[in-house]
Structure formats: C-alpha cells, structure tokens
Design brief:
The protein is an alpha/beta fold and 318 residues long. Helices cover 42% and strands 14% of the residues. The chain has a five-stranded mixed beta sheet with strand order 7-6-8-5-9. Helix 2 links the parallel strand 1 and strand 2. Helix 1 packs across helix 10, helix 2 packs across helix 11 and helix 4 crosses helix 5. It is globular and about 65 Å long.
C-alpha cells in the first residue's frame, strides 16, 4: 500500500507535538546509528504490547528491539488481551504502543463497520477516529492479515484456479474445510459466496491448524487460511485472490497516544515506521514460518531480521 500521502499529515502533526513539548524539530530519516547519543536516551520508559499469537509476538519483538537499539527504555508486554481492554490501557497510560489491524480497530474500537473500498480509505477512517481521541496510527504495514481460502497448487493447476471467482468451476464437487467462525458472519464465507457466486458442495468444520493436513491428504479441496500463514511461504498451497476485496483490510498499524509521541521525540515514530515499511506479505509469511514450522524463538527471528536490515547492531556471533 502506498502510504506516504496518508501519513504526511500525521508527520506534520507529530512535529508540531514535538515542538509544542519543547523537543527538537523533526529530522529526516537517515541511516540508523548506534552511539552514545542515541535519541531514546533519557526519554520516559515505554511499555509496548502484542497479542497472543505468533505474528503479534514477532511484531512485538521487532518494535521492541528496534526501539531499544535507539536507546529507548522498553518493556514488552505480550498477550495484552482483547482489543477493547488494550484500548483502555492506551488511554489510561498503562500502554504506550501496540500494533493493531486496521479493520479490527475500525470495527472493535471506532465502531465503524462500513465496507471500505480501499486500504487507504480504511486507514484514513481509523486515523480520523484515533486523532479525535488523542491517539495516532503510525505507518501501516504493507502486509494485510485477513481470512482467505487456499487450495493445493496441484489442484489449482488442474482446475485453473487463481481467484475466488474461479471456484464456480469446481464448487459443486468441492469440500471446503473451515472453522465455525468462518462459516458464519457477513464478512466471511457467506460474503464470499454472494460476491463471487459459488457455493461449496460440502463444508466441513476443521479446527485451526488442521486444514493443512486435510488439504495435503485430499480430505478437503479448499480450506480456510489467513493471508500471512507461514504455510503459504512454501510451494504446497496457493491462496486464492480476492479482487473485490471482500475480506477487508488487515494491515497492522502501531497505535500510540499523542502524548507519548510528544514525550518520546520524533525518532520514536521514525524507528517504528522503519520497521513497519519492511513487512510485506512475503516477509511476514517467512517470519511466521520460522516460528510456526521451524520452531524458532520469535525473539531470535526478529533479531536476525533487524540485523539484516541494519536496525540493530550485529551481535558478535553474526
């Protein structure tokens, strides 16, 4: 997603907040340096949080380590609870930042259940509500984590499947595996069926995690996944495209109170944004795969990624 024109106004706002707080004027984003005059030195300690699943553990570690490398005093609070609880922690000062998905923010916090035609529109709506309540969304990630349907690559090749609409060709003889929450509700399977004109011949309930084996063994021909699943980083499965954007906008945006941005100085937001802009869908799938498929520790995976991109100093063993 091209986010520059949607975050430019926020950058001006943050500069104004910094100046109003007696901080130095905003500088341009340059190469990361690690020295005795790090921009976070002497700033108030911050608590950042993440939710209780792999992708969020990784995001928490990425932001934590990048900020720490810039001298910020960071406490990482994993498994911070449901979105509404987290929002209360932000407004009460117990939490300084956490990454939230734009569609979740709009629906669960702002109470905005509209269908947005673009990621930019969803982000703008989320930002307007946040600014009106003393908060800001920083740069959203390029990746968007939403529900989806996938098939094996072999099945896709045999039947010419690349997008949801193609399922019309095979739907009558197809079994779809999905958790119950995907089978009901206006934003999941029923919405896809209506938008793309297909109805699976059979739908079977699978718990999350069971779908990969079911697809591989042919128990089902199509199955629920999320767009950043680590399994999609390999060559076994093919995610079907959603050209009508029925399933929404799951770009992750760090949420920060305006008073925190003012207190921490411009390098705080700049560091977070530098991490976010690197997180494409392909990157997030690989990071998730490292943890979920290859049993690596999220902290170690995040460290290696940040070292590769020069956002933390290389360790002696690198």
């Amino acid at each position: 997603m091209a986010v520059g024109r949607f975050t430019a106004g926020l950058a001006v706002l943050l500069c104004c907040a910094a100046v109003a707080s007696g901080l130095s004027a905003c500088g341009s984003g340059g190469a990361t340096t690690f020295n005795t005059t790090l921009p976070g030195t002497g700033r108030p300690a911050v608590t950042i949080g993440d939710k209780n699943f792999t992708e969020q553990f990784l995001l928490g570690q990425l932001y934590d380590q990048a900020l720490s490398a810039q001298g910020y005093q960071v406490v990482l609070n994993p498994n911070i609870g449901p979105t509404r609880v987290t929002y209360q922690a932000l407004t009460s000062g117990r939490l300084a930042m956490y990454p939230e998905y734009v569609d979740v923010w709009n629906a669960s916090v702002a109470g905005d259940t509209r269908t947005f035609r673009s990621a930019q529109g969803a982000y703008r709506a989320a930002q307007r509500w946040a600014l009106a309540h003393g908060l800001a969304l920083l740069r959203p990630t390029p990746f968007s984590d939403t529900d989806t349907i996938a098939v094996t690559r072999a099945y896709a090749r045999r039947n010419g499947l690349s997008a949801f609409g193609d399922l019309r060709k095979v739907a009558a003889g197809m079994t779809l595996g999905a958790p119950t929450q995907f089978q009901a509700g206006g934003s999941a399977l029923p919405a896809l069926e209506q938008a793309y004109g297909f109805t699976p011949g059979k739908v079977t309930t699978l718990d999350i995690g069971e779908q990969y084996q079911a697809l591989t063994h042919g128990t089902v021909q199509a199955a629920y996944m999320t767009t950043t699943d680590g399994q999609l980083a390999g060559r076994s499965f093919r995610m079907l495209a959603d050209p009508r954007d029925v399933l929404g906008w799951g770009n992750a945006a760090p949420i920060v109170p305006l008073k925190v941005l003012a207190a921490e100085g411009p390098a705080f937001a700049r560091t977070i944004n530098r991490v976010s802009r690197l997180l494409s869908t392909a990157v997030m799938r690989r990071l998730n795969a490292a943890v979920d498929l290859y049993n690596q520790d999220p902290k170690t995976v995040a460290r290696a990624f940040l070292e590769k991109h020069g956002l933390v100093p290389r360790s002696a063993s690198s």
